[in-house]
Design a protein that fits this description.
Blueprint: H1 12-16, E1 18-19, E2 28-29, H2 34-51, H3 57-63, E3 74-75, H4 79-87, E4 89-95, E5 97-102, E6 108-114, H5 121-133, E7 140-145, E8 154-158, H6 164-174, E9 178-184, E10 186-189, E11 194-197, H7 200-241, H8 243-251, H9 256-266
Antiparallel strand pairs: 1-2, 3-4, 4-9, 5-6, 6-8, 7-8, 10-11
Amino acid sequence: KEPLITPSRFPNLLVNGTTGIAVGMATNIPPHNLRDSISAVVKMIDNQVNEDRETDIEELIEIIKAPDFPTGGIILGTRGAEAAYRTGRGKVITRAVTDIETMSGGKNRIVVTELPYLVNKANLVSKIGELVVDKKIEGINDIRDESNKNKIRIAIYLKKGVDPDAILMQLFKFTELQTNFNLNNVSLIDQGTQPRLLNIKDLLMEFVTFRRGVVYRRSVFQLNKAKDRLHILEGLRKAIDIIDEVIDTIKKSESKADARTNLMEKF
């Protein structure tokens, strides 16, 4: 049998994010922090069980403040994320993590150590090089990709006397050192049959409802297995009470199959 859905034990859609569903139906959900997402689910359950009330979106936004991108970077403000959590749609502005280092001879360099989500490092370095060649950004002397397998490090060396903050603002404007992530929380619910735009509360409630169903079906499955086992144990208990007669019946039987039939007919 092929399962319709698999029983995830945490809100995977929110934690890992997703993009795209089908032709004419778009979704763009960013990754979120695992601890925050589970804490929000626990908050919803506790409010229902302990206080017999639903959870406000404001309470959830206090726990899940913004997406948590695995490549790092900085989110500029939480207004866009909060709009998405309330309505299902919003825009998050992300920036690379940069530092201005002073060098000898009155020169500076801009060092990039974290990139916005889904930005390709090689394409970014190439784009900066094109802007320098085309003289759209002036004042950059050299660009070096000094990254290794453990960390990202892009060093942008500036000419003497150039204002590094001004260059940095130009890089944010013309390159993917600053990007927009448009949240669109369209999800397939009712076992993947119904597309719907979900706010953060609806999305988490769908997961809680799903988990409730999973735990219920698991409990029924375990109960049926226990009942089947109980039937065997009751038979063994009965056999122990009349163990001498059982042994005598087995000894007088011609084969294993004959012994089974005799035991069933006699006891």
